[in-house]
Structures are given as C-alpha cells and as structure tokens.
Amino acid sequence: DLFDWELDDAIAYETALEGSLDVDEDNGYIVADNLYIFIYQDSQTYDVPVFGLNLYSIGEAPEKEEIDPTELNEIIGFDVYSQIPAIYSNDYEVGDYSSEDYPVDIYIYLYDWTFDDALAYDDELFASLDFDENYGYIIDENLFVFVNYDSDYSAAYINIYSDAAYEPFEPEVSAVWPADAINSFFGSADIGGLIPSFTSEADFSYYITGEDDYAKLIIYTDYATVDGEDIYVAALEAAGWVVDDSAYDYVGYVANDPDEQISLFFYWYEGVIYWSFMSFYHEPDPSDGSVIFDFSDESSLVTKDANLSIWNLEPVTMAIAKNTSATNVGNVSFFSNPLRIYGGQQVTFSIEENYVIDEIVITTDGASYASVVSSAVLTGGTVLVEGSVVTITADGSGEDIVIVPSAQTRWLSVDISYTVAIV
Prior knowledge:
With 423 residues, this protein is α+β, with helices and mostly antiparallel strands. The chain contains eight helices and 29 strands.
C-alpha cells in the first residue's frame, strides 16, 4: 500500500508500466514468466482510498475430477447421472429446490467452471440427448436438463428439473393441406388464402410454437424426393411470392407474399418437407430515444483490435481509431472497465439514417480525465464539464461527432440521446 500516492501518481506509474512492460489481457503487466503487476485502489480498508501495487504469480489449477453423483441420484430417486454426460469439478454443490410447480428441481453449482466449460458441456448434451426447444435436453418424459453460466457470480450451473404443467407434445394431423389451420393462425381466410397448397400422399402434421410476434405455424409431411421443393417454389412464384435461396444451406428457402404479410421458411430433409409460417416482420417507425454504453463490460463491443474498436447499440455506433496515437487501441487489454482512450486516438459517434444525435454525456473516471476531454479537438458539438462528467451538445448539423484527445482519458459510461431526423 502506498499511502502518499494520489491519482496523478497512479496515472504516472501506470504510464511507466505501459511504456516498459508487455500486458497480459487477463492478469496485468508481465514482469517475468508467471509474474505480474498491477495498480489497485483500496476503498474499503482505510478511511480514505489508498493506491497500491500487487505483484503476484498464479498457481497451476488442479485437474478437475469427476463429481460424486451419490447425492444427486439419492435426491432424484434413481441413477439419473448415468443418463447425462459426466461432470468434472473440484468445487461444486448440489441444491434441491423441488416444489409443487417443479416436482424435480435440482441445481449442480460448478464454481470452478468457466463460460467455455459450460459451452463444452452443452455440446456434450447436444450430442447425447434429444432437445425440446421449450424445456431443454430430454432425459426422460418430463425430466429435462440444461447448463448455463452466470456471469454475475462467475460460475456455471446444471439444472435437472420436471414441470408440473408439462403436457406431452402431440401435433395435429390432417389428411390434406391444413388450410383451415393456416387461416386460423393468421386470423383471416384472405391472408391464409395467399399461401399455395401442397399435395402429398402422406398426412400433414402441424403445430404452433412461440407466442405473439414470435408465433410460428409449423407444418410437415413425408415426401420421398427433394423435387418437392421445386414444386413448391414454382407454386409460390406463380402466386407472385418472392423466393430467396441465398441462405438455403442454413435455413432452406426464405419467401414472402407480394404484400409482405407472411414470412415462410421451407425445406426438404431426409424424406420430409417442412414449412414454418409467421407474420412478416416490419421495422417499427423511428422514435426518439437514448442508449448507454456501459464500459464495465464488453457486451456491446463488436470489433476489437489494435487499430479499431467499435461499440454498437442500435442506432448508435462509437468507433475508436488509433489515428495518430503511438499507443494501440485498448493498449492490448484496456478496452473496458474503464474504457481507456489514448492521446491522438479518434473517437467518432455516428448514428443510423433517419436519426440525429442531440447530446452525449460522458462519465469519466475522475475530473482530470474529464478535463482531457474538454481540451480535446472536437467537431460536431460544444462541450461542458462538471466535475467528472462531460456533456457534448450536438451543433445541429447532423454530422458525426468526433473527439481527438491529446492525452489519456478514461470513461466509465457514455449516454447518447437522439431524435428522429426531420426530413
């Protein structure tokens, strides 16, 4: 602990570290092999915040061992563990939260798992169990499992559960093309009548999944040959539909009626033709609003490299370019928490067509960093500083707002207000 250091001392020392040591994105500045250093601020131990240096190494993590499934199996009442992929963890806990609504509700908390561990286990579940899109991976009738990662607690969990409201899925069946079901789904025979029918020797099965704007009518029938696709494409085009095969390898054919009331995905696979109908999605009319870039994490960071980082929350984009700076964007690991922008780098705020930026409020990591912004080269607006908060008011030109600071500044968040452009 360095009791006589102030913010300027910490900044100066970090500048020295940046100029003399490489950085490990996860651990700090590299002093030697498995030896790191970083500056911290302790606001809890003492009456006033105290800066300090942490010099440390990392012990090798022990190899994870397979969990003991005894408690899990005893709670559920049979050997459920043998029906799911093996679980490896050295720091785990089994919790039973079963209730009237969820007669089985078991959580296996895995405190030493990373997000990648959770993804890998989900891959194993996918490879070994069938999947129900409403409930998860199917262990048995009304017994499901899924894995998730909780970033707030930096831990994963596996949930094995049943649902008292569960009803086995049984699609409706029709001997002919289910026109009545289509009319009912769209609420009108006029709309349903826009959809060409299809003829099959086999029955048609159909069901509805999702709700409200996400509701879909799924229809499928056995059909021996893939030329059923060509037959239906010809019927759609004869009815004036727009048919697109550019994403065929991923979702099959994509189509919509001439008046853009109906969306359709359809394809043939292993002797079955599938149709998925839903209401056509129209972009909502533009409206005034605001977005907040919170640099406590990188959830809205869409591009990240040494020359350019791009943050996006529709309809606003914030781009940071290296420009004339001697330091790379992010300086390897400082893209967030807080966001660090170095002297000579260029920050550009832009917005989608039909909108204009009104105001940008930047909350910095201290008054000295706000002062850097106030003295930066600014185009597209005027600046006002109050303590650690910088407010930039757009000049009304509708052009991008660009900031080029001459020294390092650190940002905790940026709040951008916008309005619909007057055409």
